Amino acid sequence: MHTPAQFLTGEGCPAHGEPISRWQRDVRAQAHPPASHHLMQRLPALRRPVGQRHHTVLDKGAGSPGKRWVVRYREPGGRSARQRKKAFDRKKDAVDFATKVENDKRENTYIGPNAGKVSLRRYTEDCLNGVLLSGGTWESYERILRLHVLPHLGRKTIAQVTAADVEELYARWAKGGAKPNTIDERSLPSLEEIKAIAHAIGPRLEPAVWLMACGGLRIGESLGVFPEDFQDGLLRLRRQVVRYLDEDGLCVARYAPLKHRKEGEWRDVPVPEFFTAFADRVPILNQQGGMTYPGLVHASWDRAIKRLGIPDYTPHVLRHKWATVTLTNGVSIHQVSRWLGHRSIKITVDRYGHLTQDGRERCRQVVAATFEGYLPEELSVGLAA
Q1: Cα dihedral sign for 20, 21, 27, 30?
Q2: Given pLDDT bands bounded at 50, 70 and 90, which one contains residue 179?
Q3: Of 24, 19, 18, nearest to 4 (Cα)?
Q4: Taking Cα atoms as reference points, which of 78, 91, 179, 160 lies closest to residue 120?
Q5: Helix, strand, or coil here: 83?
Q6: pTM
Q7: Quick one: which H or E segment has residue 71?
Q8: Does residue 258 sit in the same domain as residue 281?
Q9: Would you tell me how many other CB atoms lie within 10 Å of the CB of residue 258?
Q10: Is the domain of 198 the same as that of 228?
Q11: Which domain holds residue 12?
């Protein structure tokens, strides 16, 4: 019988040619790894799979020409994507770079070495022309870039744009009167004004006003409602109307998936029971019986508020009005966020968080009621008082 020390050092081991068990071979291999193991220790390969993508950090060894640590990685696109490498003096810098590359690829924010040399102006032009957007969204993005971003950063390359540049741009906007993207309930229309607008805009478009005001719908969503979408106190939103520019540059309305939703997905919104009265007045069509796109509603809205002589509201304020009414009356901000169709609860909190009811007094009441009768006498006296 051999002790573990004797077995691992070879003392008292079977003579050459004498059979040994598989267990003995495995243990001995772990104690005395082959030469290839030591080679890999000197040339470590650190692989971090991310789906089909990975990177490798190689150590060329001390004294080798050039920088010691080399990162080999692929650009986005799988096995057929271009392979690149970058060298570093320190292992930490190499690992940090490799990790950043994989994180950027995972989050679709990767910018290749050559892409970083492209100007921001050229990059934004390529992006706008390479994605499918509704006409209104495309025009909005183009206007913001042309008027507010590119005059200040357009000549810089992607690699040259820093966080400090963005902060400076924010500061410039704030100095020019831009305000945080929060909603001031004092700037929203009153209930009397909403009623007046709904009447002035005419019976054909009136349902859109109330769908936005009482359901928090976007303007395109209000135009995509059909009778079968009303279901037992819920409005099941399945589509929105968007405007596209056809090959001739003409505006064309079409149905599209909801914002932040894929084809076939929907969003349920609770609505009052009396909303079923609108079932025979949807979908909202134009005077020729065709689809109405948001721009036509905007035009009718603008004419209505001009005749009424009220502030220059936009139709989107009705969505803000719905959020304000629900939140100031105690509806959960998480539920409101879901019904609004926001991509993230952070968007809802940033815009409407200041409107939520203060829960501190409610918290004090709940804790006091729960522990009453179990507290020390001096605390119970204070509670009774």
Answers
A1: positive
A2: low
A3: 24
A4: 160
A5: strand
A6: 0.57
A7: strand 69-74
A8: yes
A9: 19
A10: yes
A11: 4-32
